[in-house]
Structure to design on (298 residues):
């Protein structure tokens, strides 16, 4: 197998790694708190993509037992379903805190927030 | 082997993710994130995970977008004097380092779709697939595992959602009570 074919077989994993990178960049690099939350979500989806791609088998059916065998593994799907719901709860609490921060300090910019806090 | 449609979808979601990272206007970033969630929901269907796809489309693209829009409606959008943010070099260095170190493991992973991978041949996977219908009388193996075999996980998940609700009520108390 040539290197290029091996890479084509693993494109999903590569995409997952790139999503982790983009998520990290948004989380660290963006000044706006709402965008940091979006970056956290992109990072999470990268991990989801890694799990679901690991469960996939070429030519297999979804894990619905009415379809013909073989099936893809249901276990990573279950873990990711739980993770999606937990991720949304996390996002909701983070955004609630952001609304409170804005009420309190009148800004969502990380730098400005630091200056306002230093002045107090 | 990956089909051209799947490859195109991967390129689409990566472009949307880069757009969310670089767009300065938060509303534009939220719209790009909505498109991203929709693209990834379609990818779940290609990867034979319809349950995850449905959840992602309703929760990821639906609820999440509404929450983000509510947040910027209650707070502020930064003045959009520029379309794109300036690239933050230290953050870029950290994320490139992360991607490079993760990619070093790329060829040690089994190919996507290999039927002899550790996940596919795992004892737990095959136990669930063989016994889910007899033991739980549910034909969707994902539902059987979620609600029956790993029911305590799902109970824990419900506790997390409940705590998040309580946490939000405490944090936003002033607004709820006026």
């Amino acid at each position: 197998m040539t290197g290029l074919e091996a890479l084509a077989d693993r494109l999903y994993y590569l995409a997952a790694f790139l999503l982790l990178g983009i998520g990290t960049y948004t989380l660290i690099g963006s000044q706006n708190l709402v965008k940091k939350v979006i970056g956290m979500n992109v990072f999470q989806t990268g991990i989801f993509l890694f799990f679901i791609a690991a469960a996939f088998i070429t030519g297999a059916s979804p894990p619905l037992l009415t379809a013909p065998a073989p099936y893809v593994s249901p276990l990573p799907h279950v873990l990711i379903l739980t993770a999606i719901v937990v991720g949304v709860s996390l996002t909701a609490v983070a955004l609630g805190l952001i609304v409170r921060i804005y009420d309190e300090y009148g800004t969502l910019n990380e730098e400005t927030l630091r200056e306002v806090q230093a002045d107090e | 082997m990956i089909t051209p449609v799947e490859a195109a979808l991967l390129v689409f979601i990566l472009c949307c993710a880069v757009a969310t990272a670089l767009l300065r206007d938060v509303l534009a970033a939220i719209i790009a994130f909505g498109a991203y969630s929709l693209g990834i929901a379609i990818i779940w269907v290609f990867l034979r995970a319809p349950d995850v796809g449905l959840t992602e489309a309703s929760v990821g693209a639906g609820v999440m977008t509404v929450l983000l829009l509510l947040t910027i409606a209650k707070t502020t959008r930064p003045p959009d004097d520029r379309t794109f943010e300036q690239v933050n070099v230290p953050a870029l260095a950290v994320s490139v380092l992360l991607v490079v170190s993760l990619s070093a493991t790329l060829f040690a992973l089994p190919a996507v779709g290999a039927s002899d991978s550790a996940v596919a041949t795992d004892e737990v996977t095959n136990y669930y697939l063989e016994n889910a219908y007899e033991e739980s009388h549910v034909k969707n193996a994902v539902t059987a595992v979620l609600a029956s075999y790993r029911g305590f996980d799902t109970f824990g998940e419900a506790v997390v959602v409940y705590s998040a609700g309580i946490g939000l009520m405490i944090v936003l108390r002033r607004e709820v009570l006026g």
Summary: The radius of gyration of chain A is 20 Å. Chain A touches chain B through 83 residues (CB under 8 Å). The CA atoms of residues 29 and 36 of chain A lie 8 Å apart. Helices of chain A lie at 3-9, 11-29, 33-55, 74-105, 110-119.
